[in-house]
Specification:
There is one protein chain. By secondary structure, the protein is an alpha+beta fold. It folds into three domains: about 5-55, no CATH class; about 65-155; about 185-360, Intergrase catalytic core (hpI Integrase, Chain A). Helix content is about 40%, strand content about 10%. The chain has helices at about 45-55, 65-70, 75-90, 95-110, 120-130, 135-155, 185-195, 200-210, 260-265, 290-300, 310-320, 325-335, 350-360, and strands spanning about 5, 10-15, 20-25, 35-40, 225-230, 235-245, 255. Strands 1-2-3-4 form a four-stranded antiparallel beta sheet, covered by helices on one side. Strand 5 and strand 6 form a beta hairpin. Mean pLDDT is about 85; it is low at about 1-5 and about 335-350.
Length: about 375
């Protein structure tokens, strides 16, 4: 016999069935005897929709996931099950939302595949790879994302498949030297077009005088500013600094001096907000990708279409090296946790001292000449 119990919501009846499972029913407004079954309890994200529909006398359909709509044990089913798993990891903050977005875009190519089986033949994946030869980096990224998905599907607790058809496909793309570093002439040209007080000027100043990545311009602001006391020649000297945890996974905390040109640039705009760099409506950019795309537009406007935001960071590293900064001083400014030739980690206190000394070597007025 079921046990009915009214809980927080008017007209909601929670019933414990003989099996021990729960059943939820709702009494529509003005209909005392009618009961409408809903498919989840108050803790479910779809509860409000179903509950309100039932209170209005409608029979709600259960909310289905993408994998439930897919043909069981098909490639579409596997892709959706895998992405739903990653979504849960993002919600638990154990996986990057940005990485999930990239994987979704890559794996969506498999959803157009005519094969309804879960195991796409190795030959078919090779053909798809070859079809994308015009964009070699994207082609290789597609195969790698597919291979990682199949590795996940092969894990002992799942055993959806017994082999990985995406492994063994040779890469097309040969990595080059990466982004072109900015030089002094480029910086002057950019600032000649984008004057003090403009968004491009703020963005360039942040990248230039903190060494941050473009995605960090979406979080950096006055809340990251702090005071640091140093004992120099027996006297206590106070420095202004910018301190933050870079967005990139595996990066260590960074703290660098708040140099005068950065402070001037971030205070110049008439509209101030939670971050130094603001997009439309005075709000931070939604993602590093959107900020990067906007910065590329500003480069084109300045007559520098060959350059990008990443090149600013690379240019700063080259400049610091030319000025005699050590590998660890450059690591301190860039937030790297591991040297290329060793596994020596820089402590936080040491990082600040190294970063301050390194940045002090930069003559702000002539560094890019």
């Amino acid at each position: 016999m079921s046990k009915a119990l009214k809980v927080d919501y008017a007209g909601l009846i929670e019933e414990t069935l003989p099996s021990g499972s729960m059943r939820y029913r709702v009494r529509p407004r003005g209909e005392r005897k009618r009961r409408i079954k809903i498919h989840c309890g108050p803790d479910h994200e779809d509860f409000q929709r179903q509950y309100l529909a039932a209170r209005n006398g409608e029979q709600p359909e259960p909310l289905k996931t993408a994998s439930e709509y897919a043909v069981p044990r098909s490639i579409g089913w596997l892709v959706h099950v895998y992405l739903e798993y990653l979504e849960k990891r993002v919600a638990a903050k154990t996986f990057s939302g940005k990485t999930l977005k990239k994987k979704r875009n890559l794996l969506n190519k498999l959803l157009d595949n005519p094969d309804r089986v879960m195991m796409i033949p190795h030959s078919r994946l090779s053909e798809m790879h070859d079809d994308m030869m015009a964009t070699p980096a994207q082609a290789d990224a597609f195969i790698e994302a597919t291979a990682v998905m199949y590795d996940w599907a092969m894990e002992k607790k799942r055993r959806y498949v017994s082999s990985n058809p995406a492994r063994g496909i040779e890469k097309i793309y040969e990595k080059g030297e990466g982004a072109t570093p900015w030089k002094g002439v480029h910086i002057r040209q950019f600032f000649a077009v984008h004057k003090l007080g403009t968004k491009p000027h703020v963005a360039m100043s942040i990248l230039l005088w903190t060494g941050c990545r473009i995605e960090d311009t979406t979080i950096l602001g006055r809340r990251n500013e702090c005071k640091v006391l140093e004992l120099i020649d027996g006297e206590r000297v106070e420095f202004e600094a910018v301190r933050w945890q870079p967005s990139k996974k595996g990066s260590t905390e960074v703290m660098v001096p708040l140099l005068a040109p950065l402070k001037e640039a971030t205070r110049a705009p008439k509209i101030q907000g939670n971050t130094y760099l603001l997009g439309r409506g005075g709000k931070p950019y939604a993602s590093g990708d959107s900020a990067s795309a906007m910065f590329k537009t500003w480069c084109v406007e300045a007559g520098l279409p060959q350059l990008s935001a990443h090149g600013v960071r690379k240019g700063l590293a080259e400049l610091l090296a030319e000025l005699g900064c050590t590998q660890y001083e450059i690591m301190a400014i860039h937030g790297h946790s591991e040297a290329k030739t060793s596994e020596v980690y820089t402590r936080r206190v040491e990082r600040w001292n190294l970063a301050r000394k390194a940045m002090e070597r930069v003559d702000v007025s002539h560094a890019w000449s």
